[in-house]
Amino acid sequence: MIRLLHAADLHLDSPFDALGEEKAALRRREQRELLRSLARIRAEEGAQLVLLSGDLFDSDSAWTETEELLCLTISEMAVPVFIAPGNHDYYSNSGRWAKLRLPANAHVFTSEDFDAVVLEDIGVRVWGAAFTDRYCASKLDTLRIPRQDGFTELVCVHGDMNNPGSRYNPISEADIAASGADYIALGHVHACSGLKKAGRTCYAYPGCPEGRGFDECGEKGVLIVDAAPGKVKSRFITTASRRYECLSVPADEIDSFHLPDGAADNIYQITITGETGQEPDLAAIRARLEPQVFALRLRDETRIRRDVWERADEDSLRGVFLRMLRDRLSSARDDHEREMITRAARWGLAALDGREEAELLW
Ligand SMILES: [Mn+2]
């Protein structure tokens, strides 16, 4: 069995705009520390090689210290490290990957066409390809590995699974099954896929090792993969220093709501929901909860209880609208018609309020 560390989508030097300047700078420092954790995990787990499947950097522009730290980390890893550039950090002759003085144990794939590096001493071939532009047409359909006895065939590539129309190297299960690989180390999707199999080939997305927003909630990490010809196992290892968490709390429970243990390290979005007699006091809720977390976003999705017809006598568009429907309601012939008119009133009032979810009004 060969043991490898598989990580992707670090998106180093992301702007973290939503956090404010000070916390964003701290988050970028923490992203850099992520590189140190990768080196530590590599050593603790005794991985014999490292596959980094693209989008290591968020953009062209990165801080020099981040690039230097990447070089230092790879050098400390002291095992072969393979990089398959993705859509955010694609390879170009004048770009970062061509300029960086990477240590000798690093190998960056530079072509859209697959090529292989042979590691004779451990009986492994690593196949890889690069994005050479923001977009990349399907590539894996060209990979048909001529299998060689005793070799474990690994692939490192950035691409989009089960999304045929994608502009980011769309990959199908059929391509994977026909590739002849034992394990395909994917990058691009930011949630861990767990170990999957198509034909005799296993594949996985580790997801991003550090969440960057409320669309990247929960545990984040990397994969330790043990692979041999026709045999693959994987284990998820958490790396994120902070988690993004989204919680919904009914308005009548918000005053007694307690954050879970460990919340101080994490970034929360708390959505207050349900029907209330009065609007929630967001300032008071923020004052109580904010000191307990790293950062807090509060969303008020409550709806105020009220009688549908209570404002029918108002001298306003709302009043005219409600009076019209009230007249029709009184002459309605059956329950079905009455229900339709009531619904029309609800939707109309929601539109007048500029609300999206009329159905939640009552
Ligand atoms: Mn990507």
Features:
Purple Acid Phosphatase, chain A, domain 2; 25% helix; binds manganese (II) ion; alpha/beta; 362 residues; six-stranded mixed beta sheet
Description of the structure:
The structure is a single chain. This protein has 3 domains: 2-238, Purple Acid Phosphatase, chain A, domain 2 (4-Layer Sandwich), CATH 3.60.21.10; 244-304; 317-360, no CATH class. The chain has 7 helices and 19 strands. It has helices spanning 21-45, 64-77, 96-99, 173-178, 282-289, 317-330, 335-353; strands at residues 2-7, 49-52, 81-83, 106-108, 115-119, 124-128, 152-158, 160-161, 170-171, 183-187, 196-198, 201-204, 221-228, 231-238, 244-250, 267-273, 275-276, 295-300, 303-304. A 6-stranded mixed β-sheet has the order 4-3-2-1-13-14, covered by helices on one side. It has a 6-stranded mixed β-sheet with strand order 5-6-7-10-12-11. The protein has a 3-stranded parallel β-sheet with strand order 15-16-18, with helices on one face. The longest helix has 25 residues, at 21-45. The radius of gyration is 27 Å and the shape is elongated. Bound molecules: manganese (II) ion. Manganese (II) ion (MN) binds at residues 55, 86-88, 158, 188. Manganese (II) ion binds next to loops.
Q: What's the alpha carbon Rg, rounded to whole Å?
A: 27 Å
Number of domains: 3
Head-to-tail CA distance between termini: 60 Å
Described by strand count, sense and barrel closure, the largest sheet is: 6 strands, mixed
With strands numbered from the N-terminus, the spatial order across the biggest sheet is 4-3-2-1-13-14
- What portion of residues is helical? 10-25%
